[in-house]
Specification:
Helix 1 runs antiparallel to helix 2, helix 1 packs antiparallel against helix 7 and helix 3 packs antiparallel against helix 10. The radius of gyration is 19 Å and the shape is globular. The termini are far apart. The chain has one domain. The chain has 11 helices and no strands. By secondary structure, it is mainly α. Belongs to the EamA transporter family. InterPro entries: Diverse_Substrate_Transporter (IPR051258), EamA_dom (IPR000620), EmrE-like (IPR037185). Keywords: Cell membrane, Membrane, Transmembrane, Transmembrane helix. It is a multi-pass membrane protein. Its main location: membrane.
């Protein structure tokens, strides 16, 4: 994303728009083979996409404030947002692990945000952390709505993602003035190529795999596999972009990841004899 050298707002809108172009023919193919998405499914997908667009817009902006690795750690609070929404809306029981993990996550976020390091305190860091948390909340809302809509139209994956990506494009465009507005002029061919790769690999392929896999795997397993993302992001941002977090930020990132894992029972899971 940062390698493309494109501003945050334009990146968020472009990745969603390019994804729609790729997904449309795949959606028509799914419709002819499996069936059409119901009207309710379309509406739910549009609502989910609005949350996804806010997620992408906030996350992309956060990357330019605090770096790719830290921002990717922050958005993983979605694993806590999801059960919170399930409790508040669907009245699903909240586990003791979730209650215990909440302050642990807040501690980790404060470490990442430099609250305990005077040299890191400033408007850029604070804004970046806030945007990362907003992105994580949007991400959690998207997953929550998608989970509910999947029950309405089982077996359909491409069509919901297509409608959601279209809605995300509009949502990201609507909030783009907050981070400087869309500026497509002057983008080089190389940057467009990198944006296309981001859309195809990071959105189309990744989300189709997640949609398919999450149906087949338990929620805790899915949550555990998603923890690979922030770990890889921290490593790659240091290796490729030269973004090296402080010791306290690294500890905070580890606390966030550990908190997410604990909330999903991945660290305290009892072994069966």
């Amino acid at each position: 994303m940062k390698l493309a050298g494109v501003d945050a707002a334009t990146t968020a809108v472009a990745r969603c728009a390019i994804a729609v172009v790729v997904l449309v023919p795949l959606a028509f193919r799914e419709r002819s083979r499996v069936g059409a998405l119901s009207r309710g499914g379309v509406l739910w997908s549009l609502a989910a996409g609005a949350a996804l667009g806010i997620d992408y817009a906030a996350w992309t902006a956060s990357i330019y404030y605090v770096g790719a690795g830290i921002s990717t750690v922050l958005i993983n609070i979605q694993v806590l947002v999801l059960p919170a929404l399930a409790f508040l809306i669907d009245r699903e029981r909240v586990t003791t692990r979730f209650v215990i993990t909440l302050p642990l996550m807040l501690l980790g976020i404060s470490l990442v945000g430099g609250l305990w390091n005077a040299s890191l305190r400033g408007p850029d860091t604070g804004t970046g952390v806030l945007l990362g948390v907003i992105a994580g909340c949007g991400y959690g809302v998207y997953l929550f709505i998608t989970r509910g809509s999947a029950r309405r139209d089982p077996g359909l994956f491409v069509q919901p993602l297509t409608w959601a990506s279209a809605s995300a494009t509009v949502a990201a465009a609507m909030v783009s003035p907050i981070s400087g507005g869309i500026q497509p002029a002057g983008i080089s061919a190389q940057s467009w190529t990198l944006l296309a790769l981001l859309a195809v690999l990071g959105q189309v392929a990744a989300w189709l795999f997640i949609h398919h896999g999450s149906v087949l795997l338990p929620l805790t397993t899915t949550g555990g596999l998603l923890l690979i993302q922030p770990i890889l992001a921290l490593g790659l941002s240091a290796l490729i972009l030269g973004e090296h977090p402080t010791v306290l930020q690294s500890v905070g990132a580890a606390v966030v990841v550990a908190g997410v894992a604990t909330a999903n029972g991945l660290l305290l899971r009892k072994r069966k004899c």
